[in-house]
């Protein structure tokens, strides 16, 4: 992750120097858009922990999918009135196998109630009670809930966060209070979002408003649930139908899953059933830091392809192309940096192919 962050910092320096070099209002908007994408990626990589949040509108099957992934019936259904408190699942070496610890954090005060849970059912009951928005006096001020466990999926530093559905009835003195708190959590704590929708609902205006608001810039993946017995052609048709709603630089990857079939396969210890439900592929994707980095690298490569093409095609007011495209000293400095490997070479080819051979240090 440190190498990726360094590459992004170097690209930000190149873009800023190029903007000052050309001083052309015609390219400022494009470079500003590229800078925004890079800053979002950098912010995600600069956090001191990696939180992967499952988010979506209400009643999309998020808790079913989470429980299928985690392998236990832990995540409560939060489709009715509920708090905005996220539930974070952490790995802990101090917890015995098959047991759990639940810790509640409050916005006011230093008290942190804890529960030692002998099994997953006990955890589910506690989380359901904490998330119940009907008891506003007892649950309204919860900032977040942590569940510590020995689930191997989380052993490499991954923290999975379950969030209440946007648009779900939420308690609070003022309308929107808890949705605002949840948006602040996503901005401050979350490195990556897995956005969940139901296949029969698709991506409508409310879903796109949600995508273009709190999760834009930190969402690389769209999990389409309810895909029991879907063929590959069904999946391709769905993707073709809804891909046009996204800007190409920011289009998420589509994943088609069945949380219900995955949960049934977990209960039956049916590995082939987990494969068919898409749970095995999702588990492999989120399991390691290298796997989680793939999505961010894909965003970076797509940005470089589109930005390089746009800059090469752009004609300045006097109808001539940019030559040089990039600020020469900064480009030479970037090419001379040792870090980056194959990813950096791909980016250089996309941004400025004719300069790829330049590898000497600036004089």
Explain what this protein looks like in three dimensions.
This protein is an alpha/beta fold. It has two domains: 103 residues, no CATH class; 238 residues, Rossmann fold. Helices cover 47% and strands 15% of the residues. It contains 14 helices and nine strands. A nine-stranded mixed β-sheet has the order 4-3-5-2-6-1-7-8-9, covered by helices on one side. β7, α7 and β8 form a beta-alpha-beta unit. α3 runs parallel beside α9, α9 packs antiparallel against α10 and α12 packs parallel to α14. The longest helix is centred in the C-terminal third of the chain and has 25 residues. It is elongated, with a radius of gyration of 23 Å. The C terminus is likely disordered.
Features:
9 strands, 2 domains, 9-stranded mixed β-sheet, 47% helix, 14 helices, 15% strand, 363 residues, disordered C terminus, Rossmann fold, alpha/beta, elongated
Write the layout of secondary structure elements.
Elements: H1 2-22, H2 25-45, E1 50-55, H3 62-70, E2 87-91, E3 100-106, E4 114-117, H4 120-131, H5 136-139, E5 142-149, E6 158-162, H6 177-189, E7 192-198, H7 205-212, E8 219-225, H8 232-243, E9 253-256, H9 259-268, H10 271-277, H11 279-287, H12 289-313, H13 328-336, H14 341-351
Parallel strand pairs: 1-6, 1-7, 2-5, 7-8, 8-9
Antiparallel strand pairs: 2-6, 3-4, 3-5
């Amino acid at each position: 992750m440190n190498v990726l962050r360094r590459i992004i910092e170097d690209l930000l320096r190149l873009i800023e120097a190029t903007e000052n070099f050309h001083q052309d209002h015609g390219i400022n908007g494009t470079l500003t858009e590229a800078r925004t994408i890079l800053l979002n990626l950098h912010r995600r990589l600069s956090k001191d922990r990696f939180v992967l949040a499952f988010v979506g509108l209400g009643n999309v099957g998020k808790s079913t999918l989470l429980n299928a992934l985690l392998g236990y019936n832990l995540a409560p259904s939060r489709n009715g009135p509920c708090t905005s408190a996220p539930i974070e699942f952490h790995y802990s070496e101090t917890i015995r196998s098959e047991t759990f610890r639940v810790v509640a954090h409050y916005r006011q005060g230093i008290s942190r109630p804890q529960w030692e849970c002998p099994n997953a059912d006990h955890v589910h009951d506690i989380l359901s009670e904490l998330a119940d928005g009907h008891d506003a006096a007892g649950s309204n001020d919860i900032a977040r809930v942590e569940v510590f466990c020995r689930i191997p999926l989380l052993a490499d530093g991954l923290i999975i966060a379950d969030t209440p559905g946007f648009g779900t009835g939420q308690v609070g003195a003022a309308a929107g209070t808890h949705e605002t708190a949840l948006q602040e959590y996503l901005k401050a704590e979350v490195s990556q979002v897995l956005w969940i929708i139901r296949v029969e609902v698709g991506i409508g205006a409310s879903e796109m408003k949600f995508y273009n608001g709190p999760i834009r810039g930190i969402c690389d993946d769209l999990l389409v649930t309810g895909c029991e017995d879907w063929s590959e052609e069904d999946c391709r048709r769905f993707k073709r139908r809804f891909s046009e709603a996204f800007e190409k630089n920011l289009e998420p990857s589509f994943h088609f899953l069945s949380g219900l079939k995955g949960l049934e396969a977990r209960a039956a210890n049916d590995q082939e059933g987990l494969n068919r439900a898409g749970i095995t592929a999702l588990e492999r994707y989120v399991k390691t830091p290298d796997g989680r980095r793939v999505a961010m690298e894909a965003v970076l490569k797509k940005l470089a392809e589109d930005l390089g093409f746009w800059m090469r095609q752009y004609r300045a007011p006097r109808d001539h192309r940019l030559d040089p495209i990039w600020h020469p000293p900064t480009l030479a400095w970037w090419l001379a940096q040792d870090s980056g490997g194959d990813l950096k070479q791909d980016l250089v080819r996309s941004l400025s192919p004719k300069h790829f051979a330049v590898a000497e240090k600036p004089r």
